[in-house]
Write a structure and sequence with these properties.
single chain, alpha/beta, two-stranded antiparallel ribbon, globular, TIM Barrel
């Protein structure tokens, strides 16, 4: 189960959980879910501190929010955001979390992500509202 921060008025999630600020509550939730045999994943921004805290609260996986990458338009911004995602994914794998990534990815922006040296394949799963949601895994660098 992936825990995602959504406000009632959002059509889609606009950012990741603040795991650091909510660590106590998320640890309680993760323990209950894991106690029931449910695998726990947290949807987080491409921030190394959030990835580290995800492990500390008991997550088994993280989905790195790729919205900033997907929405970047200047080539320097695209490269910088992709590197932030790749660094977060690489750290997650290194510390034992299963890394996933997604949000706002589509046929226009997935090419750069797929061409990144850390990318190791992925799949697309349609969401209820008809948009594509991409999940992809990464190799350690």
């Amino acid at each position: 189960m992936t825990l995602v921060p959504e406000r009632r008025e959002e059509l889609t999630t606009e950012g990741g959980l603040d795991v650091t600020a909510s660590s106590r509550k998320l640890a309680e939730i993760a323990a209950k879910l894991k106690g029931g045999g449910i695998r726990v994943s947290l949807f987080v921004d491409a921030d190394l501190d959030q990835v580290k805290e995800s492990l500390r609260v008991g997550a088994q996986a993280v989905e790195i929010h790729t919205g900033r990458y997907a929405n970047a338009s200047a080539s320097d911004d695209v490269r910088a955001e992709l590197e932030r995602v790749a660094d977060a994914v690489s750290l997650a794998a290194k510390i034992g979390l299963e890394p996933l990534a997604g949000h706002g990815l589509d046929y226009r922006n997935i090419g750069s992500a797929r061409a990144h040296p850390g990318h190791r394949g992925g799949q697309h799963r349609p969401r209820d509202h008809g948009a594509e949601r991409c999940w992809w895994g990464w190799r350690r660098r």
